[in-house]
Amino acid sequence: MRTVYVNGEYLPENEAKVSIFDRGFLMADGVYEVTSVLDGKLIDFDGHAVRLNRSLDELDMVGPVTKDELLAIHRELVTRNSIVEGMIYLQITRGAPEDRDFAFPDPETTPSTIVLFTQNKPGLANNPVALKGIKVISIEDIRWGRRDIKTVQLLYPSMGKMMAKAAGADDAWLVEDGFVTEGTSNNAYIVKNGKIITRERSNDILHGITRAAVLRFAQEAQMEVEERNFTIEEAKAADEAFITSASTFVMPVVEIDGVQLGDGLPGKVAPRLREIYLEESRKVAV
Ligand code: PMP
Q1: Where are the domain boundaries for CATH 3.20.10.10 in the chain?
Q2: Maximum CA extent, the chain
Q3: What is the pLDDT along the chain (286 residues), one digit of tens a residue?
């Protein structure tokens, strides 16, 4: 049984409890982070901690722990649950006031709720899916306008994954005003004539921690990167495509809306980036 962390305590997962009045439960008033673990170490913890603070600030939420405490909790959970490869899920909500109310409660009297748990995923780095790539469909992006804040409002992304599944695909890319924003739970990229193209950062997409690292590594490896909007038609005519996220790292996309890219197998760029990302991230894991 897993040991999880709830509001200052390490508990067996079946003893951990959160109030039914918690605003995360009633209003999706909460933010989260997912940090991957490789070799029993945290990948890009710093990036996730910085983004978490930004999400909290943007929502006028008060974080219950310092960055050092957060790192200590992550490490303790990795140790207690013997995680070698997997993820740590972290969620902070605006806490549980005495009654349901739209107005934000006073943080002095209603402390935020913090929950962390581990997800054991042996084989995460050597995921065989990366060898054959994934298929995506495109769907309309009807999410709210602050996708740069990592909130727990994940209903539409969940519906998108179900739409993909129903269509025999693995995931969905979201399209707004004709342009791809991102994947349901990842950033989206295409490759044309060796150039890596991905939407620029704005409120329209989550600023992926993996995205930042991958673009940095790509530039260091003298690969050309262009941050701009692209349409789904341009994507279908691309040489390659891929997604990035903390749990999939770099994952090739080989089919978009039933249209095969190239010969339908992962190309050169995405697998190379995956290799570089894993190698470089492991070196600086904590
Ligand atoms: N976009 C969305 C909508 C996401 O949910 C995620 C992952 N949670 C990402 C992008 C990728 O972010 P990261 O690389 O930090 O995991």
Answers
A1: 129-283
A2: 60
A3: 999 999 999 999 999 999 999 999 999 999 999 999 999 999 999 999 999 999 999 999 999 999 999 999 999 999 999 999 999 999 999 999 999 999 999 999 999 999 999 999 999 999 999 999 999 999 999 999 999 999 999 999 999 999 999 999 999 999 999 999 999 999 999 999 999 999 999 999 999 999 999 999 999 999 999 999 999 999 999 999 999 999 999 999 999 999 999 999 999 999 999 999 999 999 999 9
Amino acid (one-letter) located at 97: P
Is the CATH number 3.10.450.10 carried by domain 3-120? no
pTM of the model: 0.97
From 17, 150, 165, 268, active-site residue: 150
Q: Is 10 helix (H, G, I), strand (E, B) or coil?
A: strand
Query: Is the distance from the beta carbon of residue 209 to the nearest atom of ligand 1 less than 6 Å?
Result: yes
Taking the C-alpha atoms of residue 3 and residue 234, their distance in angstroms, rounded to an integer, is 46
User: In the CATH scheme, what is the code of domain 129-283?
Assistant: 3.20.10.10
* In contact, 188 and 198? CB cutoff 8 Å: yes
Q: Which residues pair with 134 in a beta bridge?
A: 253
Alpha carbon 233 to its chain's center: 25
**Tell me, what DSSP letter sits at residue 107?**
T
36 lines ligand 1 (CB under 6 A): no
Residue 150 annotated among the catalytic residues of the structure: yes
Which run of H or E residues covers position 115?
Answer: strand 113-120
